[in-house]
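Progress against Task 2.4 (sequence-to-structure conversion) is shown through the following example record, which the project officer requested during the mid-term review.
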Amino acid sequence: MSDEQKITTPTDTRALRNALGCYATGIAVITAQGSDGSLAGVTVNSFASVSLEPPLVLWSLSLYSPSLAAFQHCHHYAINILAADQIEHSQRFSRPADASGSKFAGLAFDTSPSGAPLLRDACAWFECRNETRHPGGDHLIFIGLVEAFQRTDRAPLLYHAGQYRTLQP
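Structure tokens generated for the chain above:
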């Protein structure tokens, strides 16, 4: 067996992370408005479709995320699928809030009927009712009921092997 084919155990977390990175994913920013009017947003690549009937999607968030409580307690959130030219949005929402206290400072966005921020020019967005949550190791898995959505023909932003990627035409 060559070194590339070496069997590794999950206790080697760096090797596990590298192997998981072989799966190319899209990038989404999950956004919500809290009951106090504050806005929350996080970058994820853990988005997936669950069911068409009823229309359910899922995503997960680290139990150590400063935004966890905002998403646990919001009634609705929006899943914004980033376009290929939105790397800055991915980076903005993957970091802690700046000195202004908001990741949304200076960012133009629209608002869903439930009040969740919708990032302009995204490939698609889904407004979801915060349906259920399930523990999943060091993450919380959110299942949302899609109540509204919109899509465009823009190319998606992808993530593979620790780098941003785009589709070739």
